[in-house]
Amino acid sequence: MVMDPLDDVFSAMRVHSAIYARLESRAPWGLSLAGGQSARFGLVVRGACVLKVEDESSAITLTAGDCYVLAHGSPYVLCDSLETPRKSCSEVVRDKVGGVVELGGQGVPATVICGWFTFDSESARPLLELLPTQLHVRMDHARTQVLQATLQLLAMETDTPGLGSKLVVSRLADIIFVQAVRAHVQSDVESGRGWLTALADSKLGAALRAVHADLAHPWSVETMSRAANMSRSAFAAQFKVRVGEAPMEYVTRWRMFRAGCLLRQSERAMIDIANTVGYESEAAFNKAFKRMSGIPPGQYRRNHRPVTETAEVV
Prior knowledge:
By secondary structure, the chain is α+β, with helices and mostly antiparallel strands. It folds into two domains: 5-188, Regulatory protein AraC (Jelly Rolls); 195-303, Arc Repressor Mutant, subunit A. It contains 13 helices and eleven strands. It has helices at residues 5-13, 89-93, 121-128, 145-159, 165-188, 195-198, 202-213, 221-227, 232-243, 247-265, 270-276, 282-293, 297-303, and strands at 15-26, 30-33, 39-46, 48-53, 60-63, 67-70, 76-79, 87-88, 100-104, 109-119, 135-137. A six-stranded mixed β-sheet has the order 9-1-10-3-6-11. A five-stranded mixed β-sheet has the order 5-4-7-2-8. Strand 4 (48-53) and strand 5 form a beta hairpin. Helix 4 (145-159) runs antiparallel to helix 5 and helix 7 (202-213) packs across helix 8. It is elongated, with a radius of gyration of 22 Å.
């Protein structure tokens, strides 16, 4: 089975909850959204608006078909113009979650579907560390055709809610985040370091996919270099430069990432988890996990019992 780091993260993230509102606005209008743990996304269905994220030097003009995702829950402003006074989103939207929010005056209209969703932040950490504050996907780009179809389905679902709409929107939020990240990776992968960049390299990408397909394999620099069809020394040097860590450091980190997911999301026996991530004995696994996380796996599991999280409008 072919697998890459994105598959690994996406399969573990699990959106816990999602809420949304359909904003029907006319200029002048403006919303101010505070920071929080929930990720945010938006789709401009009609017209245009301005997005200004806190700590970002410049604002972005969004037009019909554009999508934004703020995976880190950063505070931001959404408005027709930065000169327009803003109202607090918590005051305007809170009582109309899942419905239509009318805002503004009598000027140029704009329709924006705004959403908030929470996911397993521990599972998403390897990905979030590499993502920018804001993802802006322009829908006229050829690589975003699948995302466009999903967003159009979301637009229809919020325009005419029916039986099960809340569940449908939650599932669509999961898909939207995955697809927005994929679109970002495809269009901007060469600008950064880490495994997102390395995946674009035919040789390093082959080694990474081999590792993620079988974490239980007794990996070494030698076996990874063979998967990449490179000499051991050249592979080790290039891997360090492109990924930012040595090959075996990478393997260990991802083994512990996968183990953490299994500890949080399943009741599998400790030896079973140990074998799944490449350790023949529970003792060796316990030692490696404690060295990486600071606590034994049993305590980690107790500390991370699943809880129900709810996305908040802020």
